[in-house]
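Shape is hard to put into words, and the shape of a protein is harder than most. The fold becomes a row of whole numbers, each drawn from a learned catalogue of backbone shapes. The outcome of that step, for a single protein, is printed below.
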Amino acid sequence: MTAVATEPAEPAEPSGSAHSAVPVQPTVPAVPGAAAALDVPAVTAAPGAAPVPVRVPGPAGRGRLVLGRLLAARWAVAGTVVVLLLFALAFGGQYLTPWDYATPDYTALRQPPSGTHWFGTNGVGQDVFAQTVRGLQKSLVIGLLVALFSTVLASLVGACAGYFGGWTDRLLMFLVDLMLVFPSFLIITIISPRLKGTGWLAFVLLLALFNWMITARVVRSMTISLREREFVRAARFMGVRPMRIITRHILPNVASFLIIDATIAVGGAVMSETALSYFGFGVKAPDVSLGTLLAAGTGDAPVFPWLFYFAAGLLVLFVLAVNLIGDGLRDALDPTAEVARTPRRTRRTRRKRGRT
């Protein structure tokens, strides 16, 4: 018997629609946690089906992100509502009453709050509500202007000192240190009586002159770190003028700090104006402010409390609301604030899941 050599037969390909070749779709490398981070549901294509396009939303703008964080801070929203209501009262409250803040009602002397005089009257018959509204308006205007002027001055001095360096930095920081050494309250009390004929705008400039030094130091330190960044160096090599670099590249990058500082400075300026007016060095008669109202009603507060506590309550409410807004802005503009709030949200989510 002779052995016949046979070639090994190739395995037959399976036939039928159930065993037909399935085209392999190209796969995209998966990034762990990408779908959860982008809030996009995971989509799995069926075998043989066309790939499903998934639209990934782009990153939210900084303004929208900051606004979302600010709205998430309930206390900051409450403070904003209170400040807006106080501004509406200060500039619109005079139209709610027929009485003028300087017009006396000789038939109602030191009368308690009533339907005719909502906050009562003082010793000469002047309407306390009209005076409180006028005093709140004056204090808010002074606080806003002082915060605006001091923030602008601090940003320019600090940015110039940090960007130019050298003798410019030394001279400007020497001026800052010199201003910090001077007792501002004492100097204002000495100069203020000599500004009687100049009006309250001179008082605003005097307050702003002693309210910018700390902010300028912080802006200087931030500018020193920003002047070595690539976009600032590129602008310098392109021949852009230094002041244009400061206004177009440096200051916008420290705007977050300036916004927070200016917000808190409004409350501080109102407190400073109130303190100086309380001692007779601020707003002069016949005009009124919260400080002059507090000074006039201090002696009569135990017997006639409406002369003191309405103005004091509005002052405390405004300063508290401004501080809440400042804290909310700091958390909203700080990129690390979201990390600090994550554990609280996680615990809240776990509690809800445990209840269900």
User: Anything to note?
Assistant: The CA atoms of residues 109 and 124 lie 6 Å apart. The longest helix spans residues 128-164. Confidence is low (pLDDT under 50) at residues 1-43, 342-347. The chain has 14 helices and no strands.
